[in-house]
Amino acid sequence: MGRGWGWGILLLLPFLTHAQPLTLSLDEVVTLARQQSIAGKQAATLQKTNYWKYRSFLADFRPQLSLDGSLPSFTRSFIQVQQPDGTIAFQPVSNNNSVLNLSLSQNIPLTGGSIYVQQQLQRFDDFLNQNTLYNGIPFAVGLSQPLFRFNPMKWDRRIEPLRYAESNQQYIESMEQVALDATGLYFDLLVAQVNLQIAETNRANNDTLLTIARHKLELGKISRNDLLQLQLSVLNARKDLASARQTAEVASLKLRTFLNIQGEINALRPFDLAIPNQIRSFSVDVKQALNQAFANRSDAIGFQRRKLEADRDVDRARKENGLNATLNADFGLTNRGNRPGDVYVRPQNRQFVEVSFTVPIMTWGRQRARLETANANAELTVQTLEQAKRTFEQQVYTQVTLIEMLRQQVKLTAEADEIAQSRYQIAQERFKLSDLTVTDLGIAIQDKDRARRDAILALRDYWQAYYTLRLLTLFDFETNQKITPPPAPPQ
């Protein structure tokens, strides 16, 4: 920041102190978090990366057209040449051997091989003898096919779509996690603000009550001990106020940082958070929640993917331990000449067939060990997935039963808060009329503060449970619809 900007902020500080607060509801904070938080942008970037990875995978199964070669390929040197009598002579060479090859290839996922169509032109220039020759392949079709070997393409076609679908659901989950984190920070600040309001009210009320108590002491209506108790309450109230103010500032900074609020003015505006009293009424069936969780969550897709990966590893271990062979075949036309066009005049047949193989004969049990290891890992994966499924089911079941209980807690704590506030008002009036002791007044104050905090904490528990249920099921039970990916936040 330049010096001019720094002085500008200093000049604005007196006005920013009395600036309009940034009024936000819980829904607005969740929306802001999804749109502009760093966590939301990271989730969107990761999803974009996964999308292009999947596009790259799909491209591997489409025809590939490529042009390769060496142009030029010049050599000037001495080479070793064996003479008829067996001696060696070093002859000078100066030539250019350029090659261009145009090929169209296609992978065959079913067999794991590939087929290609090829056209090639080669030019050889002998600069010492002033001679130029052309060689070429006007047309050729070839096949490269592994025999009795592991086919990774077959497994990739089953696994990669699941991996991409899993990443899509992980993006939705990440956005729901952003909403849950934002809710936690929202209520951290809201609880801090409520505590600050309570501390400010208690400090003002205790100052007023201390003034009244001093007047009563002069009239002999209270004891010196009661006055000292009120003086202690005033000191405690001031101490609580300072602590509550500092806690609120820290909570405000955490929420502001998470929301990634930009701009000099907005960065200094205080938050004014609304209390989300409107509890959303909807019913949640445990069976429906479990069905939606296993239909929507990335974990459920991940279970299928991990099982397939274990089966793939067993298949690899089994087939790479036996006979490994590869068939390479090439059929086409070829010719040579002194001009490029000669290559295409009455070309000759061209054939190439090769079968390469490897047969393990003595491995000292290595093949069996690898296969048994793969089988044991597959069995362990199945057991781990089964345990993960049961743990996941317990989480969903617990959350469904919890949210209904918390909805009742919100209602009960709200009623208790209303009663406690009314009771405190009555106790305050009775103390002014000398009809209540300082001890009873202190109890009323504690009950009032505890009831207000309990009401806010019950709201926090409910809304966190609400967003946790959405995260676990990726289902909106209010609208009875699956949660779709939100728009990606701007980068």
TrEMBL record:
Nucleotide-binding is among the record's keywords: no
Listed GO MF terms: efflux transmembrane transporter activity; porin activity
Coiled coil: 368-395
Main location: membrane
Protein localization: Cell outer membrane
InterPro entries: OMP_efflux, TolC-like
Family matches, as Pfam families: OEP
Residues annotated as transmembrane: none
Keywords assigned: Cell outer membrane, Coiled coil, Membrane, Transmembrane, Transmembrane beta strand, Transport
CC terms in the record's Gene Ontology section: cell outer membrane; efflux pump complex
Gene3D superfamilies recorded: Outer membrane efflux proteins (OEP)
Statement: the UniProt record of this protein carries the keyword Plastid: no
Similarity section: Belongs to the outer membrane factor (OMF) (TC 1.B.17) family.
Protein name, entry field: Transporter
Organism placement in taxonomy: Bacteria, Pseudomonadati, Bacteroidota, Cytophagia, Cytophagales
